[in-house]
Design goal:
Layout (H helix, E strand, L loop, with lengths): L4 E6 L3 H12 L3 E7 L3 H10 L4 E3 L2 H5 L6 E4 L6 H10 L3 E4 L7 H14 L3 E3 L7 H11 L6 E9 L4 H5 L14 H17 L2 E9 L10 E8 L4 E7 L9 E6 L2 E6 L2 E7 L5 H4 L12 H13 L7 H4 L1 H15 L3 E2 L15
Parallel strand pairs: 1-2, 1-4, 2-3, 4-5, 5-6, 7-10
Antiparallel strand pairs: 7-11, 8-9, 8-14, 9-10, 11-12, 12-13
Helix pairs in contact: 1-10, 4-5, 6-8, 8-12
């Protein structure tokens, strides 16, 4: 017990369940406290997860010296507030995606991580799927030759009930966007992870079906720093939902995969069939466990987060540039905070 790494969770909603279950499943982690502004929610959550202490005010949780890691599972526009308070209280932070929704707050939370020396990691659990890891290894090994085209098709269905389910959803102030910032951010993250940094975007977003203030449909044309080109399409407006599909094409090979598995893995002059055996199963349900295990290693061994904040912000910066491009009707250069001439694109 004494050796276990101790966790607190702030925000006892839907995704907090995944964090709690992953902590419970780990022999090296203990959940000591949870917090939610809706005190009944915090109490019920604690009741369902081994009775950690429940607080209505997360600052009481942060005052505890016996908590090493805080999982931030509040609405996206509150991530910086809670994460910065937690790091200032001496905790390492595992933050839900998107890391934040505004560039100024991304800058601030990364600065706080660096000045306090507390680690700030982001959950992008699709990176830990066998197929995504195999794709990354193949790309990094140069198997596909020169990368020339990459696309992410992120076509989801969301119902009107989904949007009515929580009042922060689909608001600029707390969700920071729609099909891209909430649902699509996973795929944007994967695409830039595989293809490399995105330098410039030209985009059009629209709200075509849902009675929401953010986009439910989007298309972006991408220029990667490597010179490769690409496309992102994202939606929550369509029916039926399509599997998330990522395509990475190079001069020597192609890799196309979706939620249903590998659709194409071809390398010129090589039989890749033996390598495909291990990547068939896609297990998103247990995707949070590697992130909890990693935070245990952060505390015990000084490990780096699986997806550190500077890496985790990239998808958000791309999406903010897409919104800006659509609004201004012109291409926008993607920047990552302190690397130059970014424009503030907050709309809240
Ligand atoms: N990794 C994933 O695949 C994934 C999936 C779903 C959601 N998320 C992310 O997780 C976050 C939460 O999403 P959700 O669907 O669980 O939302 P939710 O609405 O179900 O839960 C959020 C909870 O935070 C609480 N809360 C709000 N303000 C608070 C405050 N100041 N202090 C303490 N608690 C507060 C709310 O009362 C609510 O219980 C979002 O950023 C979302 O993007 C990630």
């Amino acid at each position: 017990m004494g050796d276990r790494v101790t966790f607190g969770i702030v925000g006892c909603g839907i995704i907090a369940e995944n964090h709690a279950r992953a902590i419970e499943a780990s022999p090296d982690a203990d959940l000591l406290a949870v917090a939610d502004v809706v005190s009944e929610r915090a109490r019920a959550f604690a009741e369902a997860h081994g009775r950690p202490q429940a607080y209505p005010d997360y600052r009481r949780l942060l005052e505890r010296d016996d908590i090493a890691v805080v999982c931030v599972t509040v609405p996206s526009g509150l991530h910086a507030e809670v994460a910065m308070a937690a790091m200032r209280a001496g905790k390492h932070v595992l933050c839900e995606k998107p890391l934040e929704i505004r560039r100024d707050r991304l800058n601030q939370m990364i600065a706080v991580s660096e000045t306090t020396g507390r680690q700030l990691g982001v959950v992008y659990q699709r990176r830990t799927t066998p197929v995504a890891k195999a794709a990354k290894a193949a790309v990094d090994a140069g198997d596909l030759g020169r990368l020339v085209l990459g696309d992410a098709l992120l076509k989801y269905h969301r119902s009107a009930d989904y949007y009515r389910g929580a009042d922060w959803r689909a608001t600029w102030a707390l969700d920071g966007g729609g099909a891209l910032m909430n649902q699509g951010v996973h795929g944007v993250d994967l695409l830039q992870w595989l293809m490399g940094d995105i330098r410039r975007v030209s985009a059009r977003t629209a709200t075509l079906v849902h009675a929401i203030e953010v986009e439910d449909t989007a298309v972006a044309y991408l220029e990667f720093a490597s010179g490769a080109l690409g496309v992102i399409t994202a939606a929550t407006s369509i029916y039926p939902e399509q599997p998330t599909r990522l395509s990475v094409h190079g001069s020597q090979g192609s890799l196309v995969f979706s939620d249903r598995g590998v659709e194409e893995w071809t390398v010129r002059g090589e039989d890749v069939a033996p390598r495909m055996g291990d990547v068939a199963g896609l297990d998103f349900a247990h995707g949070h466990r590697p992130f909890i295990d990693n935070m245990v290693a952060v505390v015990r061994d000084g490990a780096q987060p699986l997806v550190p904040a500077r890496e985790g912000r990239k998808a958000v910066d791309v999406i903010l540039a897409i919104y800006e491009s659509s609004r201004r009707g012109m291409p926008v250069v993607v920047t990552h905070g302190d690397d130059g001439a970014s424009e503030e694109t907050s709309r809240s």
